[in-house]
Design brief:
The chain has seven helices and two strands; from the N terminus they run αααααααββ. With about 170 residues, the protein is mainly α. The chain has a domain of about 90 residues. The protein has a two-stranded antiparallel sheet. Strand 1 and strand 2 form a beta hairpin. Helix 2 packs across helix 3. The chain is globular and about 70 Å long. The N and C termini lie far apart (about 70 Å).
Length: about 170
């Protein structure tokens, strides 16, 4: 006996598949949960917003921005497009609601006080020292502050040779 195969066509309005190209963020979130890095950043942010008008908690915003940067979306301009991405929504807020838009993330970045920035900087140093002290099996630790391969050609200004990447690249300014 043959089984019937039924195919249904869904218009775009009725059916929108959830597809992502950022599934690797799930692994990053697991790593982050073990280290507690974004949770600590969210605590140290010092959110001064009026709670009556908050749609996205500071921790979700910090995670969204951090994970966007980790996924190579360094500009907040991509936030309005990425707020629909299912992987980013899952790792940043843990819920299915839309993430923050570009204007919201820009306001967050500009609202950070110099004291909050110093607290973030101190946290980075504390985290590095604590994790570095746990490394007993290594004799050497390489710090590649800007690991982005940004190849340059010709005699461009601020172009330097990187032996790690074996190419000339623009230095981070």
């Amino acid at each position: 006996m043959k089984k019937a195969i039924e195919i249904r066509h869904h218009s775009r309005r009725q059916y929108r598949p959830e597809i992502t190209s950022e599934a690797g963020l799930m692994l990053l979130r697991e790593f982050d949960q073990r280290l507690g890095l974004t949770a600590t950043l969210g605590e140290r942010f010092g959110d001064q917003r009026d709670p009556r008008y908050i749609a996205h908690p500071a921790l979700a915003l910090v995670r969204q921005r951090g994970y966007q940067i980790a996924a190579d979306y360094e500009d907040a301009n991509d936030a309005s497009f990425l707020r629909h991405d299912p992987s980013l929504r899952a790792v940043a807020s843990g819920r299915c609601a839309l993430l923050a838009s570009q204007p919201t993330l820009s306001r967050l970045e500009h609202a950070a006080s110099w004291e909050a920035i110093r607290r973030f900087q101190q946290l980075g140093l504390e985290w590095f020292c604590r994790r570095g002290a746990e490394r007993e099996d290594e004799d050497e630790l390489m710090l590649d502050i800007d690991s982005t391969a940004d190849p340059t050609h010709g005699q461009q200004q601020l172009s330097f040779f990187s032996p790690h990447w074996r190419l000339a690249r623009t230095a981070a300014v």
